[in-house]
Amino acid sequence: QVQLVESGGGLVQAGGPLRLSCQASVNIHSSYTMGWYRQAPGKERGLVARIRRGRDPDYADSVMGRFAVSRDNAKATGYLQMNSLKPEDTAVYYCHTRIDGIDYWGRGTLVTVSS
Question: Would you state the pLDDT for residue 107?
Answer without folding.
Answer: 98
